[in-house]
Amino acid sequence: MRSFFFLRWPVADMFRLTSDPIVPTHRSDDQAGAFVTFKGRVRSRNGGRTVLRLEYEAYAEMALTEGNAMVGEAIERFGLVDAEIVHRIGLLEVGDTAVWVEVAAPHRREAFAAAEWLVDQLKWRVPIWKREIYAEGDSGWIGADAPPGGGKFEVEFGRRMTCLHEVGEAGARLLGEARVLIVGVGGLAVGALPALVGAGIGTIGLVDPDEVETSNLHRQTLFAAADVGRGKVERAAAFATRLRPGMRVETFPHALEATNADALIRAYDWIVDGTDSFAAKRLLNAVCRRHRKPLVTASVHRWEGQIMTVMPDGPCLACLFPQSPPEGCVGTCAEEGVYGGLVGLVGSLQATEVVKGILGMSILDREVLLVDLRTSDVTRLARTSRPDCEGCRGELPGSDDPLEVSRLEQAASRFGAYRVVDIREVGERPALAVPHLHIPMSRFDPPSGPMVLVCAHGVRSLVLAAELASLGIPAVSLRGGVSAHPELADAGPG
Predict the structure, then answer these.
(1) Does the predicted model carry a pTM greater than 0.85?
(2) What does the alpha-carbon distance between residue 172 and residue 166 come to, in Å, rounded to a whole number?
(3) Which of 8, 86, 119, 351 could bridge 100 with an S-S bond, Cβ 3.0-4.6 Å?
(4) Does 392 participate in catalysis according to the annotation?
Protein backbone atom coordinates (compact mmCIF):
# COMPACT_ATOMS: atom_id res chain seq x y z
CA MET A 1 0.00 0.00 0.00
CA ARG A 2 2.70 2.47 -0.98
CA SER A 3 1.89 5.99 -2.05
CA PHE A 4 2.64 7.10 -5.59
CA PHE A 5 4.63 9.98 -4.15
CA PHE A 6 6.52 7.85 -1.59
CA LEU A 7 10.16 8.89 -1.09
CA ARG A 8 12.39 6.21 0.43
CA TRP A 9 13.77 7.23 3.79
CA PRO A 10 17.44 6.71 4.70
CA VAL A 11 18.47 4.07 7.20
CA ALA A 12 18.25 5.46 10.74
CA ASP A 13 17.55 4.19 14.26
CA MET A 14 13.77 4.17 13.87
CA PHE A 15 13.81 0.35 13.57
CA ARG A 16 16.12 -1.76 15.77
CA LEU A 17 16.87 -5.44 16.34
CA THR A 18 18.04 -6.65 19.74
CA SER A 19 18.87 -9.95 21.38
CA ASP A 20 18.40 -8.41 24.83
CA PRO A 21 15.07 -8.04 26.65
CA ILE A 22 13.16 -5.02 25.37
CA VAL A 23 13.02 -2.18 27.87
CA PRO A 24 10.53 0.42 26.56
CA THR A 25 11.71 4.02 26.57
CA HIS A 26 8.68 6.24 26.31
CA ARG A 27 9.10 9.28 24.10
CA SER A 28 8.36 12.85 25.09
CA ASP A 29 7.90 15.66 22.59
CA ASP A 30 5.95 18.89 23.04
CA GLN A 31 4.88 18.79 19.38
CA ALA A 32 2.96 15.56 19.97
CA GLY A 33 -0.45 15.43 21.58
CA ALA A 34 -0.86 11.66 21.34
CA PHE A 35 1.44 8.70 22.03
CA VAL A 36 0.32 5.18 21.13
CA THR A 37 2.30 2.04 22.00
CA PHE A 38 1.89 -1.60 21.01
CA LYS A 39 3.60 -4.49 22.81
CA GLY A 40 3.57 -7.97 21.28
CA ARG A 41 4.34 -10.76 23.79
CA VAL A 42 5.00 -14.49 23.50
CA ARG A 43 1.80 -16.30 24.44
CA SER A 44 1.55 -19.69 26.13
CA ARG A 45 -0.88 -21.30 23.67
CA ASN A 46 -1.36 -21.17 19.91
CA GLY A 47 -3.88 -23.18 17.92
CA GLY A 48 -4.73 -25.29 20.97
CA ARG A 49 -1.08 -26.28 21.56
CA THR A 50 1.15 -25.35 24.50
CA VAL A 51 3.99 -23.00 23.53
CA LEU A 52 7.27 -23.43 25.45
CA ARG A 53 9.28 -20.68 23.79
CA LEU A 54 9.74 -18.76 20.54
CA GLU A 55 12.79 -18.09 18.40
CA TYR A 56 13.31 -15.25 15.90
CA GLU A 57 16.00 -14.87 13.26
CA ALA A 58 16.54 -12.08 10.75
CA TYR A 59 18.69 -11.00 7.85
CA ALA A 60 19.91 -8.04 9.87
CA GLU A 61 20.99 -5.73 7.06
CA MET A 62 17.84 -6.30 4.98
CA ALA A 63 15.59 -6.12 8.03
CA LEU A 64 17.09 -2.83 9.21
CA THR A 65 16.90 -1.27 5.75
CA GLU A 66 13.28 -2.29 5.15
CA GLY A 67 12.21 -1.63 8.75
CA ASN A 68 13.60 1.90 8.77
CA ALA A 69 12.08 2.60 5.37
CA MET A 70 8.72 1.34 6.65
CA VAL A 71 8.81 3.57 9.73
CA GLY A 72 9.86 6.53 7.60
CA GLU A 73 6.95 5.87 5.29
CA ALA A 74 4.58 5.86 8.28
CA ILE A 75 5.94 9.24 9.39
CA GLU A 76 5.31 10.60 5.89
CA ARG A 77 1.86 9.02 5.49
CA PHE A 78 0.41 9.95 8.87
CA GLY A 79 2.28 13.17 9.66
CA LEU A 80 3.93 11.71 12.75
CA VAL A 81 6.29 13.57 15.04
CA ASP A 82 8.28 10.41 15.75
CA ALA A 83 8.05 6.61 15.64
CA GLU A 84 10.12 3.61 16.75
CA ILE A 85 10.01 -0.18 16.44
CA VAL A 86 12.17 -2.60 18.43
CA HIS A 87 12.09 -6.32 17.52
CA ARG A 88 13.68 -9.17 19.54
CA ILE A 89 15.75 -11.89 17.88
CA GLY A 90 17.02 -15.14 19.40
CA LEU A 91 15.21 -17.31 21.97
CA LEU A 92 12.25 -15.80 23.86
CA GLU A 93 10.36 -17.28 26.78
CA VAL A 94 6.60 -17.13 27.35
CA GLY A 95 5.69 -13.61 28.49
CA ASP A 96 8.73 -11.95 26.89
CA THR A 97 8.12 -8.89 24.73
CA ALA A 98 8.80 -9.78 21.08
CA VAL A 99 8.07 -6.41 19.48
CA TRP A 100 7.60 -2.86 20.74
CA VAL A 101 6.01 -0.12 18.60
CA GLU A 102 5.56 3.50 19.65
CA VAL A 103 4.32 6.44 17.61
CA ALA A 104 3.95 10.11 18.48
CA ALA A 105 1.55 12.31 16.52
CA PRO A 106 -0.12 15.70 16.85
CA HIS A 107 -3.55 14.03 17.25
CA ARG A 108 -4.81 10.67 18.47
CA ARG A 109 -6.39 9.61 15.16
CA GLU A 110 -3.09 9.76 13.30
CA ALA A 111 -1.34 7.98 16.19
CA PHE A 112 -3.82 5.08 16.29
CA ALA A 113 -3.89 4.76 12.49
CA ALA A 114 -0.09 4.74 12.21
CA ALA A 115 0.34 2.13 14.97
CA GLU A 116 -2.22 -0.15 13.31
CA TRP A 117 -0.55 0.27 9.91
CA LEU A 118 2.95 -0.40 11.23
CA VAL A 119 1.93 -3.59 13.06
CA ASP A 120 0.21 -4.92 9.92
CA GLN A 121 3.10 -4.00 7.62
CA LEU A 122 5.71 -5.48 9.99
CA LYS A 123 4.14 -8.92 9.65
CA TRP A 124 5.10 -9.32 6.00
CA ARG A 125 7.47 -6.58 4.85
CA VAL A 126 10.45 -7.13 7.16
CA PRO A 127 12.50 -10.34 6.58
CA ILE A 128 12.19 -11.90 10.05
CA TRP A 129 11.52 -15.61 10.61
CA LYS A 130 10.09 -17.29 13.68
CA ARG A 131 10.02 -20.82 15.11
CA GLU A 132 7.40 -21.80 17.70
CA ILE A 133 8.61 -24.53 20.05
CA TYR A 134 5.78 -26.70 21.44
CA ALA A 135 5.77 -29.45 24.04
CA GLU A 136 5.49 -32.04 21.24
CA GLY A 137 7.88 -30.43 18.74
CA ASP A 138 8.28 -27.18 16.81
CA SER A 139 6.64 -25.41 13.88
CA GLY A 140 9.79 -25.15 11.80
CA TRP A 141 10.92 -21.78 10.50
CA ILE A 142 8.05 -19.64 9.26
CA GLY A 143 8.90 -16.79 6.93
CA ALA A 144 7.39 -13.43 7.73
CA ASP A 145 8.35 -11.75 4.48
CA ALA A 146 5.37 -12.77 2.36
CA PRO A 147 1.96 -11.06 2.42
CA PRO A 148 -0.66 -13.08 4.26
CA GLY A 149 -3.55 -14.66 2.44
CA GLY A 150 -1.70 -16.32 -0.46
CA GLY A 151 -1.76 -19.90 -1.68
CA LYS A 152 -4.66 -21.92 -0.33
CA PHE A 153 -6.47 -18.80 0.89
CA GLU A 154 -6.54 -17.29 -2.62
CA VAL A 155 -7.78 -20.56 -4.13
CA GLU A 156 -10.61 -20.86 -1.63
CA PHE A 157 -11.38 -17.13 -1.78
CA GLY A 158 -11.90 -17.19 -5.56
CA ARG A 159 -13.50 -20.61 -5.91
CA ARG A 160 -17.09 -19.42 -6.47
CA MET A 161 -15.89 -16.84 -9.01
CA THR A 162 -13.77 -19.37 -10.89
CA CYS A 163 -16.73 -21.77 -11.07
CA LEU A 164 -18.55 -19.38 -13.43
CA HIS A 165 -18.12 -20.76 -16.93
CA GLU A 166 -17.46 -17.23 -18.21
CA VAL A 167 -14.46 -17.01 -15.85
CA GLY A 168 -12.71 -20.33 -15.22
CA GLU A 169 -9.00 -20.62 -14.45
CA ALA A 170 -7.98 -18.56 -17.48
CA GLY A 171 -10.33 -15.72 -16.58
CA ALA A 172 -9.20 -15.79 -12.95
CA ARG A 173 -5.61 -15.34 -14.14
CA LEU A 174 -6.63 -12.35 -16.28
CA LEU A 175 -8.39 -10.76 -13.30
CA GLY A 176 -5.42 -11.46 -11.04
CA GLU A 177 -3.04 -9.76 -13.48
CA ALA A 178 -5.24 -6.68 -13.93
CA ARG A 179 -4.49 -3.26 -12.46
CA VAL A 180 -7.56 -1.08 -11.76
CA LEU A 181 -7.52 2.56 -10.61
CA ILE A 182 -10.48 4.02 -8.68
CA VAL A 183 -10.50 7.82 -8.79
CA GLY A 184 -12.69 9.16 -5.98
CA VAL A 185 -13.11 6.95 -2.90
CA GLY A 186 -16.61 8.05 -1.96
CA GLY A 187 -20.09 6.65 -2.51
CA LEU A 188 -19.47 4.89 -5.82
CA ALA A 189 -16.38 3.17 -4.40
CA VAL A 190 -18.67 1.56 -1.79
CA GLY A 191 -19.95 -0.74 -4.52
CA ALA A 192 -16.93 -0.78 -6.82
CA LEU A 193 -14.11 -1.59 -4.39
CA PRO A 194 -15.55 -4.66 -2.61
CA ALA A 195 -16.77 -6.10 -5.93
CA LEU A 196 -13.34 -5.67 -7.56
CA VAL A 197 -11.56 -7.15 -4.54
CA GLY A 198 -13.98 -10.06 -4.49
CA ALA A 199 -13.58 -10.65 -8.22
CA GLY A 200 -9.86 -11.23 -7.72
CA ILE A 201 -8.38 -8.07 -9.25
CA GLY A 202 -4.65 -8.25 -8.53
CA THR A 203 -3.83 -4.58 -7.97
CA ILE A 204 -6.15 -1.70 -7.11
CA GLY A 205 -5.13 1.96 -6.91
CA LEU A 206 -7.11 4.50 -4.88
CA VAL A 207 -7.04 8.26 -5.54
CA ASP A 208 -8.71 10.73 -3.18
CA PRO A 209 -7.40 13.66 -1.10
CA ASP A 210 -10.32 13.79 1.35
CA GLU A 211 -10.82 12.66 4.91
CA VAL A 212 -13.88 10.77 6.14
CA GLU A 213 -16.70 13.04 7.34
CA THR A 214 -19.70 12.09 9.46
CA SER A 215 -22.08 13.08 6.65
CA ASN A 216 -20.38 10.46 4.40
CA LEU A 217 -21.26 7.49 6.57
CA HIS A 218 -24.89 6.89 5.53
CA ARG A 219 -23.79 5.92 2.03
CA GLN A 220 -19.99 5.45 2.17
CA THR A 221 -20.14 2.21 4.12
CA LEU A 222 -16.49 1.36 3.53
CA PHE A 223 -15.96 3.59 6.58
CA ALA A 224 -17.05 3.52 10.22
CA ALA A 225 -17.66 6.27 12.76
CA ALA A 226 -14.16 5.72 14.16
CA ASP A 227 -12.72 6.62 10.74
CA VAL A 228 -14.04 10.21 10.78
CA GLY A 229 -11.10 12.55 10.29
CA ARG A 230 -8.88 9.88 8.74
CA GLY A 231 -7.82 9.69 5.08
CA LYS A 232 -10.29 7.90 2.80
CA VAL A 233 -7.68 6.08 0.75
CA GLU A 234 -5.96 4.64 3.82
CA ARG A 235 -9.18 3.43 5.38
CA ALA A 236 -10.45 2.00 2.08
CA ALA A 237 -7.11 0.23 1.59
CA ALA A 238 -7.40 -1.25 5.08
CA PHE A 239 -10.90 -2.50 4.22
CA ALA A 240 -9.63 -4.15 1.02
CA THR A 241 -6.69 -5.91 2.64
CA ARG A 242 -8.81 -7.12 5.55
CA LEU A 243 -11.13 -8.72 2.98
CA ARG A 244 -8.31 -10.19 0.88
CA PRO A 245 -4.92 -9.86 2.63
CA GLY A 246 -2.70 -10.96 -0.26
CA MET A 247 -3.78 -8.35 -2.78
CA ARG A 248 -1.87 -5.17 -3.60
CA VAL A 249 -3.47 -1.81 -2.86
CA GLU A 250 -1.71 1.40 -3.93
CA THR A 251 -2.85 4.64 -2.29
CA PHE A 252 -2.63 8.19 -3.64
CA PRO A 253 -3.99 10.71 -1.09
CA HIS A 254 -4.00 13.50 -3.66
CA ALA A 255 -6.52 15.18 -5.94
CA LEU A 256 -6.57 14.16 -9.60
CA GLU A 257 -5.11 17.06 -11.56
CA ALA A 258 -3.75 17.70 -15.02
CA THR A 259 -0.23 17.53 -13.56
CA ASN A 260 -0.54 13.95 -12.24
CA ALA A 261 -3.36 12.41 -14.30
CA ASP A 262 -1.13 11.09 -17.10
CA ALA A 263 1.29 9.33 -14.75
CA LEU A 264 -1.51 7.79 -12.69
CA ILE A 265 -3.61 6.55 -15.60
CA ARG A 266 -0.65 5.19 -17.58
CA ALA A 267 0.12 2.78 -14.75
CA TYR A 268 -3.27 0.99 -14.80
CA ASP A 269 -5.31 -1.15 -17.19
CA TRP A 270 -8.84 0.05 -16.33
CA ILE A 271 -10.04 3.30 -14.74
CA VAL A 272 -13.15 3.64 -12.56
CA ASP A 273 -14.55 7.16 -12.18
CA GLY A 274 -15.95 7.68 -8.69
CA THR A 275 -15.79 11.49 -8.79
CA ASP A 276 -18.69 13.92 -8.39
CA SER A 277 -17.18 16.69 -10.52
CA PHE A 278 -17.88 17.08 -14.22
CA ALA A 279 -14.50 18.78 -14.63
CA ALA A 280 -12.78 15.70 -13.18
CA LYS A 281 -14.81 13.43 -15.46
CA ARG A 282 -13.79 15.46 -18.51
CA LEU A 283 -10.15 15.25 -17.45
CA LEU A 284 -10.38 11.49 -16.95
CA ASN A 285 -12.08 11.09 -20.32
CA ALA A 286 -9.38 13.09 -22.14
CA VAL A 287 -6.41 11.40 -20.45
CA CYS A 288 -7.87 7.89 -20.83
CA ARG A 289 -8.35 8.54 -24.56
CA ARG A 290 -4.76 9.76 -24.87
CA HIS A 291 -3.42 6.59 -23.28
CA ARG A 292 -6.08 4.26 -24.74
CA LYS A 293 -7.33 3.15 -21.32
CA PRO A 294 -10.93 1.98 -20.76
CA LEU A 295 -12.91 4.31 -18.47
CA VAL A 296 -16.06 3.31 -16.56
CA THR A 297 -17.79 6.52 -15.53
CA ALA A 298 -20.94 7.06 -13.47
CA SER A 299 -22.97 9.75 -11.73
CA VAL A 300 -25.68 9.72 -9.07
CA HIS A 301 -28.33 12.25 -8.05
CA ARG A 302 -30.99 11.74 -5.39
CA TRP A 303 -32.58 8.42 -6.50
CA GLU A 304 -31.14 8.32 -10.03
CA GLY A 305 -27.87 7.13 -11.51
CA GLN A 306 -26.19 6.66 -14.87
CA ILE A 307 -23.26 4.54 -16.00
CA MET A 308 -21.33 3.96 -19.22
CA THR A 309 -18.00 2.57 -20.38
CA VAL A 310 -15.71 4.59 -22.65
CA MET A 311 -13.46 2.32 -24.70
CA PRO A 312 -10.43 3.60 -26.64
CA ASP A 313 -12.19 3.31 -30.02
CA GLY A 314 -15.81 3.95 -29.01
CA PRO A 315 -17.90 7.07 -28.34
CA CYS A 316 -16.47 9.04 -25.42
CA LEU A 317 -17.99 11.12 -22.64
CA ALA A 318 -17.55 14.31 -24.65
CA CYS A 319 -19.44 12.75 -27.57
CA LEU A 320 -22.46 12.49 -25.28
CA PHE A 321 -21.87 15.76 -23.42
CA PRO A 322 -20.19 18.10 -25.94
CA GLN A 323 -20.78 21.11 -23.72
CA SER A 324 -19.94 21.31 -20.05
CA PRO A 325 -22.99 22.04 -17.92
CA PRO A 326 -22.56 25.20 -15.88
CA GLU A 327 -21.33 24.86 -12.31
CA GLY A 328 -24.19 24.23 -9.92
CA CYS A 329 -26.66 23.22 -12.61
CA VAL A 330 -27.38 19.96 -10.77
CA GLY A 331 -27.49 20.05 -6.99
CA THR A 332 -24.81 18.14 -5.13
CA CYS A 333 -25.42 15.31 -2.67
CA ALA A 334 -24.87 17.82 0.13
CA GLU A 335 -27.49 20.18 -1.29
CA GLU A 336 -30.20 17.78 -2.44
CA GLY A 337 -29.35 14.48 -0.76
CA VAL A 338 -28.80 11.03 -2.21
CA TYR A 339 -30.25 7.61 -1.39
CA GLY A 340 -27.43 5.59 0.17
CA GLY A 341 -28.35 2.32 -1.56
CA LEU A 342 -28.10 3.95 -4.98
CA VAL A 343 -24.36 4.65 -4.82
CA GLY A 344 -23.54 1.08 -3.86
CA LEU A 345 -25.65 -0.30 -6.70
CA VAL A 346 -24.16 1.99 -9.35
CA GLY A 347 -20.62 1.40 -8.06
CA SER A 348 -21.17 -2.35 -8.20
CA LEU A 349 -22.33 -1.96 -11.81
CA GLN A 350 -19.09 -0.09 -12.54
CA ALA A 351 -17.04 -2.96 -11.11
CA THR A 352 -19.08 -5.41 -13.17
CA GLU A 353 -18.26 -3.45 -16.33
CA VAL A 354 -14.55 -3.74 -15.49
CA VAL A 355 -14.75 -7.47 -14.81
CA LYS A 356 -16.76 -8.16 -17.97
CA GLY A 357 -14.41 -6.01 -20.02
CA ILE A 358 -11.36 -7.91 -18.78
CA LEU A 359 -13.09 -11.21 -19.57
CA GLY A 360 -14.09 -10.05 -23.07
CA MET A 361 -17.83 -9.97 -22.40
CA SER A 362 -20.37 -7.43 -23.69
CA ILE A 363 -20.26 -4.06 -21.89
CA LEU A 364 -21.89 -0.61 -22.09
CA ASP A 365 -19.35 0.68 -24.61
CA ARG A 366 -21.99 2.19 -26.91
CA GLU A 367 -24.83 2.75 -24.47
CA VAL A 368 -25.60 4.67 -21.30
CA LEU A 369 -27.59 2.89 -18.59
CA LEU A 370 -29.98 4.96 -16.47
CA VAL A 371 -31.50 3.68 -13.24
CA ASP A 372 -34.18 5.33 -11.11
CA LEU A 373 -34.63 3.53 -7.79
CA ARG A 374 -37.62 5.68 -6.87
CA THR A 375 -39.63 4.20 -9.74
CA SER A 376 -37.51 1.04 -10.31
CA ASP A 377 -37.08 2.05 -13.97
CA VAL A 378 -34.01 1.00 -15.95
CA THR A 379 -33.36 2.59 -19.35
CA ARG A 380 -30.64 2.01 -21.94
CA LEU A 381 -29.83 4.66 -24.53
CA ALA A 382 -27.56 4.25 -27.53
CA ARG A 383 -24.43 6.43 -27.77
CA THR A 384 -22.69 7.40 -30.98
CA SER A 385 -19.34 8.99 -31.78
CA ARG A 386 -19.48 12.69 -32.62
CA PRO A 387 -17.41 13.90 -35.59
CA ASP A 388 -14.51 16.19 -34.65
CA CYS A 389 -14.98 15.44 -30.91
CA GLU A 390 -12.20 17.03 -28.88
CA GLY A 391 -12.57 14.39 -26.18
CA CYS A 392 -11.95 11.56 -28.66
CA ARG A 393 -8.67 13.26 -29.55
CA GLY A 394 -7.66 13.36 -25.88
CA GLU A 395 -8.38 17.07 -25.52
CA LEU A 396 -10.58 18.83 -22.99
CA PRO A 397 -13.75 19.96 -24.78
CA GLY A 398 -14.43 23.66 -25.03
CA SER A 399 -17.34 25.25 -23.17
CA ASP A 400 -20.12 26.23 -25.55
CA ASP A 401 -23.75 27.02 -24.75
CA PRO A 402 -24.96 24.81 -21.87
CA LEU A 403 -27.50 22.06 -22.40
CA GLU A 404 -29.77 23.37 -19.66
CA VAL A 405 -32.09 26.28 -18.97
CA SER A 406 -33.21 27.33 -15.51
CA ARG A 407 -36.46 28.89 -16.82
CA LEU A 408 -38.64 28.34 -19.87
CA GLU A 409 -38.14 31.99 -20.84
CA GLN A 410 -34.48 31.22 -21.53
CA ALA A 411 -35.51 28.63 -24.12
CA ALA A 412 -37.67 31.25 -25.83
CA SER A 413 -34.73 33.65 -26.12
CA ARG A 414 -32.54 30.87 -27.52
CA PHE A 415 -34.94 29.11 -29.88
CA GLY A 416 -37.91 31.41 -30.36
CA ALA A 417 -40.66 28.81 -30.79
CA TYR A 418 -40.17 25.52 -28.94
CA ARG A 419 -42.09 22.59 -27.44
CA VAL A 420 -42.12 21.41 -23.82
CA VAL A 421 -41.69 17.61 -23.79
CA ASP A 422 -42.35 15.62 -20.61
CA ILE A 423 -40.08 12.53 -20.82
CA ARG A 424 -41.17 10.96 -17.51
CA GLU A 425 -42.67 7.50 -17.62
CA VAL A 426 -46.40 6.85 -17.49
CA GLY A 427 -47.77 7.35 -14.00
CA GLU A 428 -45.09 9.75 -12.74
CA ARG A 429 -46.76 12.70 -11.06
CA PRO A 430 -47.59 15.49 -10.81
CA ALA A 431 -48.62 16.24 -14.37
CA LEU A 432 -47.42 19.42 -16.05
CA ALA A 433 -49.69 22.45 -15.94
CA VAL A 434 -48.31 23.95 -19.18
CA PRO A 435 -48.97 22.88 -22.78
CA HIS A 436 -46.67 19.97 -23.51
CA LEU A 437 -46.09 16.69 -25.28
CA HIS A 438 -45.70 13.52 -23.20
CA ILE A 439 -43.13 11.15 -24.76
CA PRO A 440 -41.65 8.76 -22.15
CA MET A 441 -37.90 8.42 -22.34
CA SER A 442 -38.13 4.62 -22.60
CA ARG A 443 -39.74 4.99 -26.05
CA PHE A 444 -38.63 8.48 -27.02
CA ASP A 445 -39.17 9.54 -30.64
CA PRO A 446 -38.12 13.19 -31.04
CA PRO A 447 -40.72 15.59 -32.44
CA SER A 448 -39.72 18.19 -35.00
CA GLY A 449 -38.28 21.53 -33.92
CA PRO A 450 -36.55 22.78 -30.76
CA MET A 451 -37.67 21.40 -27.43
CA VAL A 452 -37.30 21.73 -23.67
CA LEU A 453 -37.10 18.32 -22.02
CA VAL A 454 -38.59 17.88 -18.54
CA CYS A 455 -38.20 14.99 -16.09
CA ALA A 456 -38.47 14.66 -12.30
CA HIS A 457 -35.11 16.12 -11.27
CA GLY A 458 -33.37 17.15 -14.48
CA VAL A 459 -31.00 14.17 -14.67
CA ARG A 460 -32.66 12.03 -17.37
CA SER A 461 -33.54 15.13 -19.39
CA LEU A 462 -29.91 16.32 -19.36
CA VAL A 463 -28.66 12.96 -20.63
CA LEU A 464 -31.26 12.93 -23.39
CA ALA A 465 -30.54 16.56 -24.34
CA ALA A 466 -26.86 15.69 -24.73
CA GLU A 467 -27.71 12.68 -26.91
CA LEU A 468 -30.00 14.76 -29.12
CA ALA A 469 -27.39 17.52 -29.38
CA SER A 470 -24.84 14.97 -30.61
CA LEU A 471 -27.32 14.13 -33.39
CA GLY A 472 -27.82 17.80 -34.29
CA ILE A 473 -31.33 17.99 -32.79
CA PRO A 474 -31.98 21.26 -30.87
CA ALA A 475 -32.93 20.39 -27.29
CA VAL A 476 -32.22 21.58 -23.76
CA SER A 477 -33.05 20.23 -20.31
CA LEU A 478 -35.06 22.11 -17.69
CA ARG A 479 -32.66 22.34 -14.76
CA GLY A 480 -33.92 20.55 -11.64
CA GLY A 481 -37.00 19.15 -13.40
CA VAL A 482 -40.51 19.29 -12.00
CA SER A 483 -39.27 19.08 -8.41
CA ALA A 484 -37.47 22.44 -8.80
CA HIS A 485 -40.40 24.12 -10.59
CA PRO A 486 -43.61 23.63 -8.59
CA GLU A 487 -45.27 26.35 -10.67
CA LEU A 488 -45.28 23.90 -13.62
CA ALA A 489 -47.00 21.13 -11.69
CA ASP A 490 -50.70 20.43 -11.89
CA ALA A 491 -52.34 18.61 -8.97
CA GLY A 492 -54.89 17.02 -11.30
CA PRO A 493 -54.42 13.83 -13.38
CA GLY A 494 -52.26 14.08 -16.45
Answers:
(1) no
(2) 10
(3) 86
(4) no
